[in-house]
Amino acid sequence: MSAPKSTAARRGLLIILSSPSGAGKSTLAKRLMKWDPSLAFSVSATTRAAREGETHGVEYYFESRTGFEDMVARGDMLEHAEVFDNLYGSPRGPVEAAINDGRDVLFDIDWQGGQQIRNSVLGMHTLSIFILPPSIAELERRLRGRGQDSDEVISGRMKKSRDEISHWPEYDYVLVNDDLDQTEERLKSIVSAERLRLSQQPQMSDIVRDLNAEFEARQ
Ligand SMILES: Nc1ncnc2c1ncn2[C@@H]1O[C@H](COP(=O)(O)OP(=O)(O)OP(=O)(O)O)[C@@H](O)[C@H]1O
Ligand SMILES: Nc1nc2c(ncn2[C@@H]2O[C@H](COP(=O)(O)O)[C@@H](O)[C@H]2O)c(=O)[nH]1
C-alpha cells in the first residue's frame, strides 16, 4: 500500500520519532521515507564525529562546537539539546521551507527535542511516537550489533536509556519495536490516520452545519 498524499489543503504535520539510542528509530525513519518520499526528513546538525559511512548533509550536518553554537545564537535551530555529551539540533530553514511547500516533516530526535518541537512557536500540528525496545538486553544487543560505537559509548548510552524511556508518556503513541516489519506497519497506520483526521477536520464544521440545517427543516 502506498502512502496517502500529504499535500491536501493543510499545512505540514511535524512527525516526531524518539527512543532510547539503539531501539530502531533511524531504521524506522528510513522505512517511512521510502514509503512516502513526499515526507521531508529533518537532517539534524551535530557536534559528534561522523561514523564510518556517514556523509555530511545526509545523516547529519557535522559541525564544530563553535559552528553549532553560532547557529543557535543566530536562531537557526528549531530545537537543540545536549545528548550523550554532544550537541544535536534541527536546523530551522529546511523545516520551514518544507512546511511552506505543504510537506510533512519527520524528526528523529531525543525527548528534549520532542518537547521543544511540541512547544515551538511554529504552531503546527505534531504527531509524536515513542519507540520502545522489547527488552533492555535486546537494546544492548542492537547497539552492539550496529557495530559503530565503542564499548564506552555503548555503556554511556545504555545508562541514559532509562531516563529517555521515562519520557514515553509525553508522546501521542508508543510502539514496541520487536518485529521490525510489524512496527513499520503500525507506524504507517498511525501516520495515515493522523493525516486523514487533519484533512477532514476543516470540512467537519460545514458538514455538521448542513446536518443541523436538515434537522431544522424536519421540524
Ligand atoms: N525490530 C528490530 N529487530 C532487530 N534489529 C533491529 C530492529 N530495529 C532496528 N534494528 C537494528 O538495531 C540497530 C539500531 O537501530 P537504529 O540505528 O535504527 O537505532 P536508533 O534508535 O536510531 O539509534 P540512535 O538513537 O543511536 O541513532 C541497527 O543495527 C538496526 O538494524
Ligand atoms: N534533540 C535532538 N536530538 C537528536 C537530534 N538528532 C539526533 N538526536 C538524538 O541523538 C541521539 C544519538 O544519535 P546518534 O546518531 O549519535 O546515534 C539519537 O538517539 C537522537 O535521539 C536532534 O536534532 N535534536
UniProtKB/TrEMBL annotation:
One of the record's GO cellular component terms: cytosol
Pfam families in the record: Guanylate_kin
MF terms (GO), sorted A to Z: ATP binding; GMP kinase activity
PROSITE patterns referenced in this protein's UniProt entry, alphabetically: GUANYLATE_KINASE_2 (PS50052)
Domain Guanylate kinase-like: 12-192
Protein family (similarity comment): Belongs to the guanylate kinase family.
Name this protein carries in UniProt: Guanylate kinase
Phylogenetic lineage: Bacteria, Pseudomonadati, Pseudomonadota, Alphaproteobacteria, Rhodobacterales
